[in-house]
Amino acid sequence: MATVTVRVPATTANLGSGFDALGAALAWHSFVTLSAPHEGIVVEVTGEGAEHVPHDERNIAVQAIKALIAPIGAERAAPLRSGFVLRLDNCFPLTRGLGSSAAARVGALVAANHLLGAPLTTEELLAIAAQLEGHADNVAAALLGGVVVAVMASQKVRWVRLIPTAELHLALLIPDFELATEKARQVLPSQVPLQDAVFNVSRVALLVAALATGNFHQLQEAMDDRLHQPYRQALMPWLPKVFAAGMDAGALGVHLSGAGPSVAAWCADPETATAVAEAMWQSLNAFGLSGAFRIVPLDKEGATVLGDE
């Protein structure tokens, strides 16, 4: 059997004002290992959430591989058609707004594509991942690394990747409870006032410009949002206090990570990030809730093939 291992980053999406359009890759990695050919499909899962995800063909990573096989033809996909062994080593938590589903799908797609001799381009892999995920922000960041603006248009993903001009560190607050993306989307309205739409358009433009040019002092205003975070506070009433604690401790900007419940605070250096994380953690504790925190820089590489045998 041939074997390939892919390292894939956690991601934080939306970045406040960039709802379903912005994502950033984090230097916190899970690993996907694919071996083929094999008689039948074997799925092994270790680490975070291993006991809660399917260990069979229902696994979303298996579904991603099947979605890759479909368009490339039986002959080219032959090494995978009879079956394969898929191992997922999950190193960051699931259903916390850190892109665990995107990591599984992207890692599996990159591994399968590499094992088959790279029949699909990066753009084609991204299109499959975005279709499976339902939006492109997390999968684009997981695949490409850095900060990514991603827009779905006519079944394609239009994207621009940027690396901030200086090293930034993110303080992640990770509450000890899960929040399914579907549930977090159910609280969003189907329509928003025009002034709220204009508010977000102006902030997300400022956010992309600030990250691209190094004007990080603009991040607090740029990450402000009226499209999703105010509505999701119904599920997380502690959110405003945690945001305020992070800013008071020195964060450049704070936002809900994806659909939550994790919170991401952008900081100028790891020392400030540690102080910010501790302040947010204490604020969460004041609501009688527990959680953990982690300090991570941005991942600049995205999904990376570590080696094959």
Features:
alpha+beta; 4-stranded antiparallel beta sheet
Mind explaining what this structure looks like?
With 309 residues, this protein is of the alpha+beta class. Helices cover 37% and strands 28% of the residues. The chain has eleven helices and eleven strands. It has helices at residues 60-72, 78-81, 100-115, 122-133, 137-144, 181-186, 194-213, 219-222, 229-232, 239-248, 270-285, and strands at 2-13, 22-36, 40-47, 83-90, 147-153, 156-162, 169-175, 253-256, 263-267, 291-297, 304-308. The strands form two sheets. Strands 1, 2, 3, 4, 5, 6 and 11 form a seven-stranded mixed beta sheet that branches. It has a four-stranded antiparallel beta sheet with strand order 8-9-7-10. Strand 1 and strand 2 form a beta hairpin. Helix 3 packs across helix 5 and helix 10 (239-248) packs antiparallel against helix 11. The relative contact order is 0.19.
